[in-house]
Specification:
Length: about 130
Amino acid sequence: MQPTEGELVILQVLWSAGPSTVRDVNERLNESSSKEIGYTTTLKLMQLMSGKGLVSRDTSSRTHVYSAVLPEEKAQKTLLRRFVDTTFGGSASRMVLRALGDGKTSPEELAEIKKLITQLEKDGNND
């Protein structure tokens, strides 16, 4: 199950904050948004996400607490694969070249990328 853009924003809150109430999620969403998001909108979306199996809901206390079921890494991998397929014709190298060619990559990021490439070459893993 691939999350929609709105669901992904809520998942990002749950991944960073951990299990949270709807009110907590709504407050975090409104901290990072220029447009006010209503509590009932957040509640409805999280209820739909629960039905889809993207989040779980602990109903043992008066205030329900939601947790992400979909792991962040799995969501990133799925969304990235879809993005690469649709935007770059399935070519990861075209995507990387485009991303690095914009001139906004910091020396620290380049060092991390070099380290990853070295590790992938050593492991023989291009997954």
